[in-house]
């Protein structure tokens, strides 16, 4: 195989950039300097253009050469794998002679190995005994020298000079003995390491011989596989070199790959630290115990359901059930980041659902269209109603935010009051004499049918229907993530949630931040309310009841802290999915609905307790 030489693509690209930069400078100078004639300028620029074209061609050729080498290496790798497969098949079909004295040969090898092992153990024992006796002798000599040292130091018959000379001489002897002990110890360790290394090599040889004894065919196949792995490894090394060379030409792509590798290594290092230090493991357990419990719960449900719970159709069903409630969780999460909550979420969902149903051809209990003029409205009317619903939700969200920010009333009180106000409005809307009767269902014809298709329509993937509102949920996730992470509003929201006083000092408007956050939350609730009718088939005065509780649970499971300033969109999404997993799992194994509420309450309590424990530990 030809040794592929790495090309310096990055240098070629650098030369090209410098040529382009030089051409721009020449053009700039030529335009300002009157001594440059138009002809001279054109000639200079043409020469520069020629150099740039040549550099581009050289870079393109070099890049293509690297790509060709990668393609050739891949083809060579494919051929080697094919040849290896053919050799393995040939070896499997080959007949090998059986050794008639197989047992005797095996006993002989075992006997030789045992004799070698005994000899090794004897050598190790002799070496240790010799080392021990030498150490004892040297330590005894040191003891005698120390006794002499004490006697000479306390002697009064010797002169100071003689005593100092003898003491110095004895000190030197003691130091020599100590050095000899250390050297002997080191030599002994080196000798033991050599013996053990030689023993391991020889023992491996014996074990290999015994392992493959009478298995000539298996041994031949094994050797062929080892040989093939070595060849493939060399080709993979060359491929990696060429790919790195190609990646270096694309700085951003190369930087992304390097960062990904570094992040992976950091992640692995963190996990090693978490599982090798008790205190770190306890912290890791506090952070992840809820997820561990839910994962174990899913495994148990999957076992009891015979595997049907983790089928593709079941997974899509869980995502479907999660999707139309996910906007509520995203909205409530923003309020929790501000150290608050929102109890009006479910009622805003219900109100928007009711208004959407009335304006999009909804039928009352008698089967009559509430507003007959809505049946023949064009398709665009659906989007108009969506905007109206978002305006209603945003208005009530702003109402909550205004009273929380302006009068410093706790969000619990404000949103509880809003919840009651909206429920009263819903009672008025559905009462006789206002809209004739409570709207209960959505028709399949006219604008109602188009409304259904807009939300509940979809496409098939692997034989299972994927509804449009799953796609809408993904789009909303992306939008909320962008708001939280890439906009001034999101950064201000986290700053106010962490410390409102510090945020004010930093020039952040706390009033504006709270107002916008609650308004966005209201808009998100309204989108969920708009989706309710096609999903559930209609709406009633009780629609949206307790929706906010599931949303709060999902947010807290996802790591949004009630202490404020902490939360991720990805965490809210995971929390919503996990909560739906619990509900669907309990329903799958036939648990009573009453117990499901009890378990949800326990999950909320556990999640908040763990959140507070993390907060206290952090403080």
Structure characterization notes:
The chain has 619 residues and is mainly α. The chain has three domains: 102-213, Helix Hairpins (Orthogonal Bundle); 244-292, no CATH class; 295-618, ABC transporter involved in vitamin B12 uptake, BtuC (Orthogonal Bundle), CATH 1.10.3470. It is built from 20 helices and four strands. It has helices at residues 9-32, 38-93, 102-154, 160-211, 216-248, 251-276, 278-304, 312-323, 326-337, 345-359, 380-407, 411-430, 446-456, 468-486, 488-498, 500-505, 510-536, 547-557, 569-588, 593-618, and strands at 363-364, 439-441, 458-461, 464-467. The strands form two sheets. A two-stranded antiparallel sheet has the order 1-2. Strands 3-4 form a two-stranded antiparallel sheet. It is extended.
Summarize the structure.
The chain crosses the membrane at residues 289-312, 324-341, 348-367, 379-405, 412-435, 466-484, 505-527, 589-610. 79% of the residues lie in helices and 2% in strands.
Show the helix and strand layout.
Blueprint: H1 9-32, H2 38-93, H3 102-154, H4 160-211, H5 216-248, H6 251-276, H7 278-304, H8 312-323, H9 326-337, H10 345-359, E1 363-364, H11 380-407, H12 411-430, E2 439-441, H13 446-456, E3 458-461, E4 464-467, H14 468-486, H15 488-498, H16 500-505, H17 510-536, H18 547-557, H19 569-588, H20 593-618
Antiparallel strand pairs: 1-2, 3-4
Helix pairs in contact: 1-2, 2-5, 3-4, 6-7, 7-19, 7-20, 8-19, 9-17, 9-18, 9-19, 10-11, 10-12, 10-17, 11-12, 11-17, 13-17, 14-15, 15-17, 18-19, 18-20
